[in-house]
Please model this.
Amino acid sequence: METLKTILSRRSIRKYTGERATEEEEKKILQAACAAPVGMGRKEDMYLTVITSRDLLHEIEENAAAAFGNPGAKILYNAPEMVLVSVRLTGDEPKDNVQFSNAAGAIENMALEAVELGLGTVHIWGAIRALNQNPGLVKKLQLPEGYTPASAVVFGKTEESYEIRDTEGRYQIEYLR
Model:
């Protein structure tokens, strides 16, 4: 698939067969994450956690569902795998915005590679926001000192397919020439 076709085809997939990506597919997805741009080249401020433990995924999902007041909701859509992107925050909001942008770049690269591989994928943010409100659950992630979960992507095999979407008129565009 050509790059623009992959980008135009990417969408959130919320139905999974339960089957995980192959080891080779997972490796390509992580390679895509590591190719994302990082502000000021501070790669040491990024940390990826690959979560395939059904128990831990279920706990993250239950935590988010409870935080959203919707017990039993399938907020991770039964996806069999998650890559959590954690960052080192400074507490200085303008500087920390760079860290969240770094995480978003890694997430989008992983999502695009998943599309290229024909895997389902969806960007997960709300569940990570809820996760950060539960220090006991964050501790189970075994993150190095100083890292904060910023965002995640889930992926896995799906029976859904991708088609190129028309994005004409999606955003307002102003040309200043």
